[in-house]
Write a structure and sequence with these properties.
Strand content: 15-25%
Number of helices: 2
Structural class: alpha+beta
Largest sheet: 6 strands, mixed
Low-confidence stretches: 1-27, 30-54
Oligomer: single chain
Mean pLDDT: 76
Pfam families: Ribonuclease
Number of domains: 2
Helix content: 10-25%
Protein name: Ribonuclease
Number of strands: 6
GO molecular function: hydrolase activity; RNA binding; RNA endonuclease activity
Shape: globular
Organism: Streptomyces marincola
Strand order of the largest sheet: 1-6-5-4-3-2
Order of helices and strands: HEHEEEEE
Keywords: Hydrolase, Nuclease, Signal
Length: about 150
């Protein structure tokens, strides 16, 4: 039973009601769906919720695009040291919340030397416990790039 079986006045009332609900929703900022009476409901399924995917808080960088000093750091990590700074190998707490949420102790940080500086500088590699889960930051944790070892 469709709208064609309604009188003109009933169709006009239904359109006016739907238009009013739509307009009210737009003005108030609420949902913009109009409810029809049970006799005129659409039998097709409608989604009741949507799953939002959180954007990644890090990018990626090809292994071949890392600065030369990062290769030295990765080799030291692979060998287990010795590291040039006492902080190297320490727990990275992910206070910035940019990396995936993991338990404390999952991430560790290592210095990537910056030529010409007499201090640690801003460059780091942060490792996760998973195989090849290594992140590079050149701006002291303001951003991260997952190292892609395939390129």
């Amino acid at each position: 039973m469709g709208m064609n079986h309604l009188s003109r006045s009933a169709r006009g009332t239904l359109r006016t009601g739907a238009l009013g609900a739509l307009l009210a929703g737009l003005l108030i900022g609420g949902p913009t769906t109009a409810a029809a009476s049970p006799a005129f409901t659409d039998p097709s399924p409608t989604p009741t919720s949507s799953t939002a995917v959180a954007p990644l808080a890090f990018g990626d960088i090809c292994h071949s695009d890392l600065p030369a000093q990062a290769y030295d750091t990765l080799e030291l990590i692979e060998r287990g040291g010795p590291f040039p700074h006492p902080q190297d190998g320490g727990t990275f707490y992910n206070r910035e919340g940019l990396l995936p949420d993991r338990p404390t102790g999952y991430y560790h940080e290592y210095t990537v030397e910056t030529p010409g500086l007499d201090h640690r500088g801003a460059r780091r590699i942060v490792t996760g416990d998973s195989y090849e889960e290594d992140y590079y930051t050149s701006d002291h944790y303001a951003s991260f790039d997952l190292i892609d070892y395939a390129c």
